[in-house]
Amino acid sequence: MKKRILSAALLLILIFQLSGCSSVKFTTIDKLMRPPRLYGDNSELQDAFEKSVGKDITLKAPVSGTYKSAFIFYDIDGDKDNEAFVFYTKNIVDDAVRMQVMDKIDGEWTSVASFIGSGSEVNTVDFIDMDSDNVFELIVSWNILESKGNKIFSIYRFNVSKSIVGAFAVCTEAYTIMKPMDIDTDSNTEVFFILLDATSEAPQSVARVLKMNDKKISLYGEAKLDGNVSGYSDIKEIVGKKDGIYKLYIDAYKGENQMITEVIFWNNETSALEAPFIDAQTNTNIATWRSVRLPVYDIDKDGELEIPAQVVMQGGITRQGVGNVILPFYITKWYKTNGKQLVEIKQNAVNFECKYILNFSANWQNIISIQSDMQTKTWEVFQVDPDDEEKMQLLFIVSCVDKNVWSNRVETKYAGFSQVFENSKNATVIAVSITQAGEGIGLNLKKLNEIINIFDVG
Predict the structure, then answer these.
(1) HSE, side-chain direction, 13 A CA sphere, residue 292
(2) What pTM was estimated for this model as a whole?
(3) Is the separation of the CB atoms in 15 and 197 below 8 Å?
(4) How many CB atoms lie within 10 A of CB 195?
(5) Which of 50, 120, 312, 415 is the most exposed place for a label (fewest CB within 10 A)?
(6) E-state strands within 302-417
(7) Is 326 left (phi over 0), alpha (psi -120 to 50) or beta?
(8) 84, β-bridge pairs
(9) Of 397, 449, 458, 376, residue with least CA distance to 425
(10) Which residues of the chain have pLDDT under 70?
(11) CB 341 within 8 A of CB 415
């Protein structure tokens, strides 16, 4: 009962009220076997550590990130001697994750600080210099029992003379995703994070930046995002080739299948964090919406990621399920960002399930229509009469065929199909069949090989 009360209380704190770098404590139960002792020079460290905290403990290694040991060594003060940061729980007193900071003083390992953590386990550990004083701050991210996606991070600052003479937890924040970065390009590292509150009647999401000035952490900037999402993918850092702006692309999930991309950057002219594609009235992002979980991708192979968005294809349909429910068919438009504008660079049709793309040539975009059957995994591509949209003729069919079925195609309905490529990842073959109408306008297998390409993402 006590554990459930604590968990519920912490989850109430998680939503936006936690901002302001307040302190949070939490406990959980996680009894693990005690790992083997350290050996060699580090055995002295373990002796000093156990003298300080006792032996009835369980070491707790981070579950993600760069560091995967409960004993983490890092030279935070640049004196070429590592300090040690040890994560553990006390088995008898309580089950809170704790952090012990150890430093060598006069040649002997000594405990210089101890903290009670803010979660049920250590998620990630990062060392960053937030104010270019050559003394690194420590960011510890904590996983929270029973939280749906949200976590907590704490920032620790150290005072250093010949050794650590002071250690302070200067900030604790709830977050959904987080990444240290120099978002304003001033050579200091800030902490960027997004906090999603999807539990209230009006879901909210906000991006925030924390900055250190005069050894204190403060809110440097924030921007509202689309709150009607269920979670986020990784934060991708981009420098636009056209505008030269350092920006963040963050794919966000909507429902079971849909996706948007949040674009966020620091405006040095206004000293503000901006999310230019959020509608100010509805706090939603419809500019980068797509019907499938299609991530940002370098579609033109120029080394810069493009953002996909979808619009309904005129006359295109998608048949779904055994009842052949009719849904729209979507064209995918790919955009680069130029300042606060989306600039279209390409259109195509993406078969996300079967992992291929149908590229439109300039003279095709307004005269073809596609009918997709999700049950049979086929696309039928039609030519449309621009003067009469009711007049259509089938040009070719694209099918996604199981590799074993394809090997016996002479005995199946795929006897008249030709292979475009094989997708070894999902053991399928992408094959085409060209109609007489298609041949009549000059289509052949070579041309379709140029039009249909594998899409190896997602």
Answers:
(1) 16
(2) 0.86
(3) yes
(4) 23
(5) 415
(6) 307-320, 325-338, 341-351, 356-359, 368-373, 378-385, 388-402
(7) beta
(8) 73, 102
(9) 458
(10) 1-41, 93-94, 146-148, 361-363, 365, 389, 458
(11) no
